[in-house]
Amino acid sequence: MRYQDLVESVRDQAELDTSERARESVTAVLATVAHCVTPDMRARMAERLPGALESAVEVPGETEIRDGDALLIEIARRTDDTPERARYVGQAVFTALRAGDPDLVDELRGELHSDLMERLEPAAEPPGRARSVDPQVPTQLSDADIERALRRLTDWTGDENGLHRTVALPEDRLTPLINRVQAEARDVNDHVRVDRAGDSVTFTLSTGRRGAVTEPDVDLAERIDHVVAEVGSGGKPGR
């Protein structure tokens, strides 16, 4: 299991804005879990996990946490987030761990109280994508819907898995742009992935862990277009 693969998987599944935030979240979840298992299990975790996480799970003392709510509160404290969000992040970490080392997850399941595992293991997702029957859950757009949306958006590309726009600006304008875009996303309770490289930044919009494009993503893309126009006088498409 490669450390960077684990971090990027958690970043994508938990819809975190940056890799640094994903690294902090992985460390927080595993350090908290280490407080829930025996010293012997902590030693096995240290042996099986990437070296960068060894110190996170080598915690002193006996088992401290046996309650699921207490687990989420501690993860939330370490990540400066809400318990609800902590559960989402914890599930992302365990999903990534299972993909990289399923035997380790099975060992942890044998050690952890069932109440803890209920918080950390996500419910199975149905295969494929279907039209939502819940009015509060956005429906995935069809390929034709996405093509129509891209025609009216500025410099966006994408498909059924996500929308992308790269903007190049002087570096002193990128941070204000990113801050404004993230504020717009919070305002509409949506998520935007931000990848900054030199004098350019790429915004990626999708809904759900596996990626889908919905109307709220298109709405946020339009808002981002307005922000780019205001902050960077339109910027210019990244090459």
UniProtKB/TrEMBL annotation:
Its EC number is 4.2.1.96. It is an enzyme of class 4 (lyase). It comes from the Bacteria. Keywords: Lyase. One of its GO terms (molecular function) is 4-alpha-hydroxytetrahydrobiopterin dehydratase activity. It catalyses: (4aS,6R)-4a-hydroxy-L-erythro-5,6,7,8-tetrahydrobiopterin = (6R)-L-erythro-6,7-dihydrobiopterin + H2O. One of its GO terms (biological process) is tetrahydrobiopterin biosynthetic process. It holds the Pfam family DUF2267. Belongs to the pterin-4-alpha-carbinolamine dehydratase family. This is Putative pterin-4-alpha-carbinolamine dehydratase. It comes from Saccharomonospora cyanea NA-134.
